[in-house]
Amino acid sequence: MLVNRVLVVSITLFILSSAPAFAAAGGEAVIDPAKADADFLIQGEYAGELNKAKTGVQVIALGGGKFHAVLYPGGLPGEGWAQPKKEECDGATADGITTFTHATWIAKIKDNVMTVSATAGTELGQLKRIQRESPTLGAKPPEGAVVLFDGSNVEQFQKGAKMSDDKLLIQGVNSVKKFGSCVLHVEFRLPYKPFARGQDRGNSGVYLQSRYETQVLDSFGLAGKNNETGGIYSIKDPDLNMCFPPLAWQTYDIDFTAATWEGEKKTKDAMMSVKLNGVVVQNEVPLPRNTTAAPLKESAAPGPLHLQDHGNPVRYRNIWLVEKK
Question: How buried is 12 (Cβ within 10 angstroms: 0-12 exposed, 13-18 middle, 19+ buried)?
Fold first, then answer.
C-alpha cells in the first residue's frame, strides 16, 4: 500500500467534460520546486469523502492558471479506484480560488483544500491535498546487488555521463557493465512543464539491455497508454496509471528476463514485470521486439542499462540491480 494515503473525490455528481487536448509542445522546464509558479501548489492529488463516499481527484496544471481535474470514485489510482469510471473537467484560478464548475456542483480549491458543493449550495464535502510516496522509495540494494548510482560518482556509466550539483544523475547515459536477466530499482523525478503537452512533457525512458523501454513521462492524470509512464513503449499500456505529479520522486521496480537464443534464432521472447510507485502495472509481459528507436537491436548478447535523453531534464537516483542466474 502507498504511504500517506487519504484519497480524493468520488460521487456520481462529478467532473464530466472532455479531457484537455494534450498535443502541442512548449514551456520552460522547472526542476527546482522552489522556482515553480503558484499553479504548482494547486496541482496534485486531493483525497477525502463526498457524501461519505471515498473519493480521489487529480488536478493537472496546464499553465497560466488553467487546470484539468480527474475524479476517481472510490479513491485515487492504487487506493480504491475501480476502472474505468472517472469524470473530468477543466477549471481556472481567479482571485486566489481555483474553481471547477459542473451542471450539478461546484468545486473550489483554496489553501490546499477542495470544497465541493451542489449548485443549490449544500456542501458535499472537502478533499485535502496530499503527497503520496512510493513504498519502495529509498530502497537499499540487497547483498550482491550491482550499485550503478548512489550519488557519489558516475563511474558506472560510460563517458559523457554527468551528475547535477545536487548529486542526481542527468538523463542520457549508458551503464559500463552489460546485463542479461535482472531485477532493477531506479528512482526518477520529472520536471514541471505546465505549458508543455504530450511527449514534450518530461520525456525520458528506462531501457533494459538498451533494447526494451519502460517509458518515463509526465503522464499524471492521463489515460495510461504505452507511451506514458508505466507503459512498455510501443508494446503494452500499463494496467493502471500510477504516475505521481511532476517533481515528486517516483520508483520503478522492474523484473526482467532476457530472451533466449539458439545461435541467431530467438527461441523465447524477453519478459518484463513492472511496479510503478509500488503497484504492479505490467505483469509478466512478453516483449516480442525491441522498442522503436532502441539503441540496440535484439540479440543474444547482454546490453547496458540506458536512460534516455529526449530533451527534457529528468533526474535519476538510487539505481541498483540484482542479476538473475
Answer: exposed
Residue 238 DSSP SS3: coil
- 216 has pLDDT over 50: yes
Measured over the CA atoms of residue 151, residue 155, residue 157 and residue 159, the dihedral's sign is positive
Task: Give CA–CA dist 310/172, Å, rounded.
Answer: 8
- The vertex-303 CA angle with 301 and 309, nearest 5°, equals 150
Q: Which residues of 113-136 are buried (b: 16+ CB within 10 A; e: fewer)?
A: ebebeeeeeeebbbbebbebbbbb
Which tens digits make up the pLDDT trace of 73-96? 999 999 999 999 998 999 999 999
Q: What structural domains and CATH numbers belong to the chain?
A: 33-130 (2.40.128), 146-323 (2.60.120.560)
* Banded pLDDT at 322 (limits 50, 70, 90): very high
For 39, residues 6+ apart whose C-beta sits below 8 A from its C-beta are 61, 63, 64, 65, 67, 93, 194
C-alpha cell at 280: 504492479
Do 171 and 297 meet the contact criterion of CB atoms below 8 Å apart? no
